[in-house]
Specification:
Layout: H1 7-22, E1 34-40, E2 55-64, E3 67-73, H2 78-114
Antiparallel strand pairs: 1-2, 2-3
Helix pairs in contact: 1-2
Length: about 120
């Protein structure tokens, strides 16, 4: 590919370089999706959940092969799963930024070619 010249192109190339440096390794335990908290009722009339907010329940919602999946997450796993979801989200955002930088560089290159 023909690399465009100029300050704007240099900024995009630097941004892409910085992101690629940050992504030298794929986070091994990163998770996709969203971790959410909900409240459920167990159905026992004598339980506190029948009168109040319900029992706390956590779930991870994600897509695999075009199918939406929802998995319950035990309370003791919540912090670890949250960390892994955030790691996955950061990785995905960085990849999207790299794609955007590549697209901007392509546009700049095409504009430069037409001059």
């Amino acid at each position: 590919m023909i690399e465009p010249k100029g300050r704007e192109a240099a900024r995009w190339r630097q941004r892409r370089f910085d992101l690629l440096e940050r992504l030298r390794t794929i986070p091994r335990e990163a998770l996709p999706g969203t971790l959410t908290e909900s409240r459920t009722r167990c159905g026992k009339e004598s339980c506190h959940c029948a009168r109040g907010e319900g029992h706390r329940a956590w779930s991870l919602t994600f897509m695999v092969k075009g199918q939406r999946r929802v998995e319950r997450i035990p309370q003791e796993w919540v912090e670890e799963v949250r960390r892994r979801v955030e790691e996955g989200r950061g990785f995905k955002e960085a990849v999207s930024e790299i794609f955007a930088a590549n697209a901007e560089l392509l546009v700049l290159s095409r504009r430069q070619r037409h001059r």
